[in-house]
Specification:
The protein is α+β, with helices and mostly antiparallel strands. The protein is built from ten helices and 18 strands.
Amino acid sequence: MTPALRLEGVTKRFGDVVAVDDVTLDLFEGEFLALLGASGCGKSTTLRLFAGLEAATQGHVLLGGRDVSRDSASSRNVALMFQSYALYPHMSVYQNIAMPLRMRGLSVPQRFPGARMVSRPTRTALREIDDKVRRVATMLRLDDLLSRRPGQLSGGQQQRVALARALVREPSAFFLDEPLSNLDTQLKADTRDEIRALHARTGYPFLLVTHDQADALSMADRVAVMIAGRIAQIGAPEEVFQRPQSRAVAEFIGLHKMNILDRGHASRLHQAGATLDLGVRPEDLIIGAEGPIAAKVESLLYKGEETVVLLRDPDGFALRSILRGGQPRPAPGDQVQLSADISALHPFDRHGNRAELPP
C-alpha cells in the first residue's frame, strides 16, 4: 500500500546538530500515527519535515508516492494544529473557521465587504464556504457558538474551533503537535476522545507528536518511539509497551520507569540474568513474604488509584513496585521479598537490544 506521506532516509541538520538522523517513516491513509519522544528528541522537527515547514538536509519526502521534498507547505495541503490554538481574538468562531477557505478561495477584492453584492462568482464562493463551515461546525458541536469570539469560549471549545479550522480545508493529512499539553487532566481525557472520534469520522491520516505516553498509547493505531533523532521502535501500542525492542525504549515507555536489573543482580529473578539484563515493570514487581530478592521499603507515594513503593536491596540497588486499589501496603522500614512472573521479564543483551529468555 502506498503511504499518504513518507519520509525516506531523511536527515535534518542545524549547523553541527543532527536533529533528525536517517529517518524513514510512513503515514498511511486512514491511520492514526503517534510520534512519541522526550523533549529535544527531534519529533517536532520530523513533523515540520513532513509538513514542508523545514527542508531536509538529505533524503526525500513523498506525498502519495510523489517527491515533494522541495514543494512548499501550502502545496502539500496538510492541516496543522499546535499547542497554541492561534485563534484570531477579534473574529467570531465562524470567521476563524472560514479564514483558511477565504484566503485560499477568494481574491483580495472578493474579500472586501460588499463584494457579494456585485459579483455572482463571489456569492457562489461564499455560499460554498458557508456550507463547509457549517458542516464542520456541526461535526464538532460548534453550531451554537459560531457568533462568539474565542475569549468567550472554554479551553475545550477553543480547541474544537482550532480543529474545525484545520479540518475545513479538507487536508491531505492532519498533523497535531503537542495539542493537549496545555489542558487539565479531565479536559485532556475528554479531548483525546474527541480527536479519536474525529479521526474515525473523517478517515484522514493523523500524525500526533507528543511526549505524553498516555496520549500516544490511547489514541494511536501505531506508535513510533523517537530517541535522539532516530526511530527506535514502531508498532501497535500494545507491541511497543509489551515488547520493547531495546533497553532505551523499555526505560522510556510506561507511566512508571521500568526496573532494569543488571547482570548479576538479574540472576536472582532468572538464571538468564547471569548473562542478560532483566527488566520488570513496577506494576509486575510483586511484594510479598516470599521471593528471591530481599529489599527494604524506603518510602511510599500515595496517588489515589495506586501507591508507588520505593525500595532498596542490600546492595543499595533502587527498585519500584506499584500497589493497586486495596492491596495491603507495607510501611517504611519494612523488610520484604520481591518476585516477578517469568512472563513479565524483559531480557536485554549487553548492547541493549531485546533478547530471548532460554527455555
